[in-house]
Design goal:
This protein is 17% helix and 34% strand. The chain is of the alpha+beta class. The protein has one domain: OB fold (Dihydrolipoamide Acetyltransferase, E2P). The longest helix has 14 residues, at 48-61.
Length: 191
Amino acid sequence: MADFKKIMTPEFRVSYPELFTPKSFSPEQEPKFSVQMLFPKESKAELAGMMNLVKEVIAEKWPGKDEAFLAKLRKPWKDGDTDRENKPEYEGMIFCNATSRQDRKPVVVDENADQIIDQSEVYGGCWCRATITCYAYDKAGNRGVAFGLQGIQKIRDDDRFGGGGGSAADFSPVGAAGSKSDEEAMDDMFS
């Protein structure tokens, strides 16, 4: 792009955050920082800025190309109802990825714009917004448009995707009065 354009996304639900340590998803791939952004379909109007940026990048990279060529380009948007139908958290969502190279770590801040150090604060299921850029790629027959991740701001907590996570309430003190011995517990299990 001739001008470097950075925009702020609407709020999205976070999935697969790799914001503190770059990760590679295949042996031949360079490690990257990344996040998958899930936007509720009813917020489609709020995505106009992102959609317009994609159109602008396409027009600058491939000016004058016909509709058949443009239809074959990979776009960043995916439909959660069809592309991730086995994942209930994607139901009713539009999703896309944003990545950055391992030498360009994104800034990660909380709702007060204070830097987040604790990696567990940004997890699959929380709500964030991000600053992103948009770029075109044309490599080895793969052509399309993708989003570059500049920074991310956590807005609020929500249920974690996939459940999980233990709690201190799961345990009782070892040797607490009234607790059964391992032998008594085994007897109960097999009787």
